[in-house]
Each structure stands twice: as structure tokens, then as C-alpha cells.
Amino acid sequence: MLGGAEEPADHTLSIRERLNRLDLEDLRGRARDAELELYSFGITFTVYTQKDVIDRILPFDVIPRVISAKAWETIETGVTQRVTALNLFLHDIYHDQKILKDGVVPKDLVLGNKNYCPQMEGIDVPFGTYVHINGTDLVRGDDGEFVVLEDNGRCPSGVSYVVENRHLMLRSFPDLMSNIGIRPVSNYGQKLHEALVDTAPAGVSDPQVVLLSPGTYNSAYFEHIFLAREMGVPLVEGSDLVVENDKVYMKTINGLDPVHVIYRRVSDDFLDPEVFNPDSVLGASGLMRAYAKGNVSLANAIGTGVADDKAVYAYIPRIIKYYMDEEPILANVDTHICREPEGLAYTLANLDKLVVKPVGESGGYGITIGPRASKRELEKCREDVSADPANYIAQPMINLSVCPTLTDDGIKARHVDLRPFAVTGRSTWVLPGGLSRVALTKGSIVVNSSQGGGSKDTWVLE
Amino acid sequence: MHRLLSRYAESIYWLARYVERAENLARILDVNETFSRDSRGWQNWRSILQINRDEERFFEHHDDADADSVIHFYTLDQRNVSSIISAVNLARGNARTLRPLISTEMWIQLNMFSNTLKTMPREALSEPRLARFCNQVKEACQTHTGITEGTFYRDESWFFYQIGRAIERADQTTRLLDVKYHLLLPNEETVGSPLDVSQWNAVLRSAAGYHAFRRVQPSGMTQADVAGFLLFHSRFPRSVKACVHDISNRLSHLRSTYRLIGGAEALEELDELRSVLDDITIDQVIDKGLHEFIDWVQLKLIRIHSELGAAYFGYPALSEQGQAAD
Fold first, then answer.
1. Which of A23, A407, A438, B231 has a C-alpha 20 to 30 A away from that of A365?
2. In this structure, which topology does domain A334-397 adopt according to CATH?
3. For B253-289, what is each residue's pLDDT tens digit?
4. What angle do CA A216, A222, A226 make, to 5 degrees?
């Protein structure tokens, strides 16, 4: 809500005025109502610790994060450009591999990547769309510019909170929101459904879309329910699906019904025990055969993990240039690749200034924040990186921007990031706004929900 | 519109069953509490365990059958699969699976109800408050029923919901009658005594049937009257006959409306049960033994359940289920 300097940004003036009319007690009262509603709804995610499995609500901060129309335009075009490049890259590496032959991206980085899927070679997907749903994690550095922290092109989650947070705000703060001109987010389900229908196998006139979930114990199960409801499609589990003659069916009360498009929230490894993890009960045996024959579409496609890998991330600006002959609209954070000798040397020499991330992990696990780490933690990090350099990248510490946030000590500045969601069928559409995650602990820059982060409604102004 | 998934059909059927079960557990617990007092009003908590044949399971975790432990065992003990809280948790678990299908209002009410029970302190259930707790459970279950009636989309799943509820209700009414049977067993001479009549009175009340019964029969009350009413009175919604007719009608309607292939075997079982319930008199039942008759009805209901499972839920065919039906 603040501008680049110390002054609050102009576009938030009328919202700040309205917020000023509410006293702290009123604000707290409405925040309590909102959290009670989350609890009643059972809008929860699941945290797995060594001992327990706990259902928690995602803490919700009632002070919205506001993005001007102009800033949004940059994000929207930048995200679209990036998703386009990711899809072109995936098509290329699973077909002619021109970008590898031209030496723009190191061959072994792609072909030796554990997320590279040889079974995808030569398979054509409708419209060349591999990444139907993409979440791009953005942060604002000291200069106020949004930069890309990472891409999430496998099964990015969080969009349900974007829509539910808006519903909560509309109920809790109708007075704050009227006549402001906030771009709506409630049509996400319809847009997603359109994109999935777009990418159905050729020749199917009225495709049956389903959402495949690992089941009620998955940490994002609430979101699966939400999206299935918004799209009006069946929420299926692996045990509901069966493949016969390379076609996919679901088991109904009247026998088997055909399935044409699967929005799957099950990771590649578990999709088909015939081809991938043989112990999986979360997918369906024979799914890959049906997919390879073009009888069923999967969103996202199999094997997209190679494009959102933290190591490949460093090459995305060059990938954009290579396929699209454009400069990246959204910049990357400087990234040192420890698999490369210079990157490793620089990282080890500057451990205390860098954020070191394992490339295979997600959810903020295994990250070492150099400037905040103890001597012992830094030594541990040095050992880990030296033992397996290819598993790590390092980035300078970005001083994430802050937003006013309601805390026990009143309204205070807390660090935030932003994950806009892009949906791609025939073309790409970006949901106006996205998930703003906020680190509720003072000074913290870890916004992940599994590590004490909360979320805010994100308003893109018209 | 796509066809209903087998897994959802099974889930909605069980959702209805578990809510109905929770409601009836509260009803039976309430009446048990009355029964287990002797003629001078002394409470023997151990007899409740005996009635329900739960002694073995109970003493796995307890040393004494005192009031507090026994009440807790049947209400808030999550280790006991047949406690009220277990039924509600199972209902909530099915509702969670069914979130894409059921109304948000249905989900919120069940989720809140389950949370209320989970956080309820043991003291809330001490002996004098048991009746209040049972009422609270009944009301929450009836609220669920009302919300469902008012908000649930009427497709195939609505039929499975109704069938599940009716089959559970029929089963629970037979159990309620059986509770009374077990208590009467030791001394036949108490039949017709003031205590006996007051106990039949309590059975009727626990099934919310006292006033309905009195409309049919303004004076007098014998074992045959009450058992006959709860088994065969077709206009009383908790009677076994009313429930079985309901299941049968809804199943026929479901099959014809949605042109379903399976389900003929379940209908055959229902027809057989129906014709017995239509033809037999309460005197014939008592001659042959009320308990034996109730056992037979319960076995029939289990077979109907298994046939429904084989036809719609993906259970193995009954011929392959073997002993599972017992």
C-alpha cells in the first residue's frame, strides 16, 4: 500500500481514508468474525509434522493489498509472456530439443533432470499447452519492481484462497469495498473450465472434465473441493477411474462413463502405476497409454516439472529471448547455479549474504537464509552444498516489500509476496490479483502457509 | 449432467445412516438410562453395558462401570466405534468427501456439530445433564435433516440419502425394541406390572411415538400394542414397516427415473420383507418370539444393504461376499 519511497501510494488514498474511519477495535471485531467463518467453513489446510497431522485455517489478514491498474498491466503481460515461453520450451524439449542443440540451456540440466519425463517425448498436446495452470511467485525488491522468485507449473495451489478471501472481505467490509472499482476474481472456475474444455481431445463435442484428487487427506483437499464445485465437475479419486482399451472411464452407479479431460492434482509419479511409481493407488493403471494415444487430456501435462525447476529458472530470461525474441517483462532474481563452478565458488564465499535453496523441494522447506542464519546453520549449509552442489541454487536476499497488517501490536508492516495464477487453454488468461501471502511474524520473510504465513485479499484496481 | 459416481452414492448413503444413527443412539441412551434403574430407582450402569453386549469392549479401557465412565463410553469416547461422537465423526468424514455435492449449509452445520462434540468437556455430561445432552444431539441431527430437505439438490444422490436414512431408521427401531426385550427376559411375571408399562411408555417416547400411539389407541398399553405399533404401523414414520415401504418405493423410483440397470436383487429382498411385514400379526410374532423376529428383520436389512452395495457402490456381488453379510 506504500509507494516506492516513504510516502503511501496515491492509488490507495481513498481506501486508506475509509480504513481510517474504522477504529482498531472495530477492525479486530471484523477480523474475528472472518476467522470464525473460516473455521465454520472448514477452510483448512493440513500440516504434517513428525508427530501430528493438524488441520489449520490459513490465517487471514483483513487489510487488503492494493495493486494499481498500471502495475497490474506489467504483471499480467509479464506472466503471460513467461507462461508462453514455458509452454514453448516444454514442447521443444519433448520434440526436437532445438534449444539444447543450440546450447542455450545445458543438455544435462534438462535431460538429466529428475523431472524430465522421457515418456513424453513425441507426444502432442492440444494447442501445445503443457502448463494449463501456472502460479508465478513474485516479490517486490527495494526498487519497487516486481521480480519473479519462482515458477510453479506442476500443481500450483492457493487459488481457492484468492476467491474465498474476496468473499470474506465482501461480507466483512462491504463499506470498504463499494465504489472502489476492484477487478473481480469470482469467475476463476468458469475460466478454468473453458480452458480445460478447449484442450479436450480432438473430436469430442461435449467433453467430460473431472478433477482428480489424492483424497481427503491431501493438504489441499479443500481447494480440490472448491474448484470441482466452481466448475461443476466430479471430484474423483484414483479408485473411481479405470482404463479400458486405452480409454479412461469413471465408475458410476450405472456402470462406466467416459472421461475426456482430467485436471489432476496428483503429481506425475503417482499418476499411473504401470509407468511411474508402481505402488501408487492415487492414479489409474493405463492412464499414460490413454494419454499417449490422445484419448484423454491431462492438466497440467506430465513432465512440466522440468520447466519450473529452480535450476532451469535461471535460464528463463534466455528461454524467453530464444523462442519469442522478446526481453523479459518481469525480471528474474539473480541466481547462482551451484552446479556451475563459478556459481558454487561465489555461493560458498558469500553464504552469509545469500538465500540458499535446494532445487527439488517446495513449500519453503530446506531453505537457508544466510543473513539470518546462525554459525552452525551456515556450516551445515556449507556441508550440504559442497556434498551435492547440483542440488542447490543461491540468490541474494530480497528485502520483500511490506504491507500494513493487523497484528497484536496494532497495524504493523509485514512482508508479503504475490502469486498470480495464469490459466491457459487456447490462450492465456491471468486472474486479476492472486494470492498475497504475508509473513505474520515480525521481520520474517518466510510466507509459506506451512511455516506461519497468512494471506490477504489482493485488490487490482480498475 | 454426469452420472453419480459409485463412491459418492455410497458416501451419501452412509452420511444419512450415520446421522440417523447418532440421533437414535441418543434416543436409546436416554431410554436405557431409564431402564437401568430398578423398581426403587437405583441406577445400575453395568446393566446398560449388558443390554448392549458391550462389556468386553468397555473393560478393555476401564476398571469400573461407574456412571461417568459408562456415559462417556457411549457419548464422547472416540475409541468406541459405536459412541455418538464416532457416528458424528463418520458422518462428517463422509460429508467432507461429499463437499462437491452437498450444500455448503449442510457441511457447515455438520462440521460445527462435530467440532462442538470434540471440544465438549466430560463434565458437560455428568449424570443429571445426560438427558439435556441427548436432546442436543437429537436436535442437531434433526437440524441436519431439515437443512438437507431444504437445500440438497434433487438428483440420484437424494434417493441414496433417503434410502440410507430409512434403512438405518428401520434397523434402529428394531434395536430399540430389542433393548426392552433383553430387560424383560429374566422374569416373565413383571409383564403388565406398573414398571413394565412405564418402560413401554419410555420406549414409545424415545421413538417420539407416544402421541401417535395414543391417537391410534386412546387407552391401554401392552407389550403387543407397543411392539405392534413400532413394527407395523404404516403411518408412523419410525415404524419398521413405514421405513421398508419407503426404501422400496424410493428404490423403484430411483431405478425408473434414472434408468438404472442394477438393483433388481435388492428390490426382490425388499419385496420379501415387505410381504412378511404386511401379512404377519403381532400375536404371531410374539408366539414365535419377538427377539427371533427382530433378528430376522435385521438380517434382511443387512442383505438389502449388501445388494444395494453390489448394484451401485461397487461391492462384490452377494454370492462373492460370503460371510460378510452376517
1. A407
2. Dna Ligase; domain 1 (3.30.1490)
3. 999 999 999 999 999 999 999 999 999 999 999 998 8
4. 125
